[in-house]
Amino acid sequence: MEQASAAENFIERMGLISQVDGAPRIAGRILGLLIVEGRPFTLDEMAERLKISKASASTNARQLRASGIIRLVAHAGDRHDYYELGSDPYRRSMETISERLASIGSEVIEAAASFPEGQAEAKRRVCQFGRFYLRMGERLKAWSEQVEDEADTTTN
């Protein structure tokens, strides 16, 4: 029983982490489920296990699939679609976060452009803040590529 409650706790924590990161809570719970169980799930199985609607499972699985974190698989002789972790979900998560950081940085710098000349110091600080986000995105992207390179050398 303790193992099941630890798994359920992890799944719920993944939902909260996802929500804090700006993604749907259910998407995080689906990811948590797939990590914990280590096997493919149908939408019906996800919905039943997570106590959500099949439509919600479908919507959130589709979002995770679009980001490359999970993938759709089929089993011969079975007409159901299954979802499982993608080939490198953790690196793909890092890439998604780095893209979001870069986007935020660009938006902040774009906002700084609208500051009038009389607010040069404010504009400078806003630009500095935007560049901070851009650098974080660049470094996370570089790190994700390094992690990929390291994974390639350790599997051979």
Automatic annotation (TrEMBL):
Pfam family, one: MarR_2
Alphabetized GO MF terms: DNA binding; DNA-binding transcription factor activity
Domain HTH marR-type: 24-79
This protein's UniProt keywords: DNA-binding, Transcription, Transcription regulation
Superkingdom, taxonomy of origin: Bacteria
Keyword DNA-binding carried by entry: yes
InterPro entries: ArsR-like_HTH (IPR011991), HTH-GbsR_regulator (IPR052362), HTH_MarR-typ (IPR000835), WH-like_DNA-bd_sf (IPR036388), WH_DNA-bd_sf (IPR036390)
Keyword Methyltransferase attached: no
Protein name, as recorded: HTH marR-type domain-containing protein
Organism in which the protein naturally occurs: Devosia geojensis
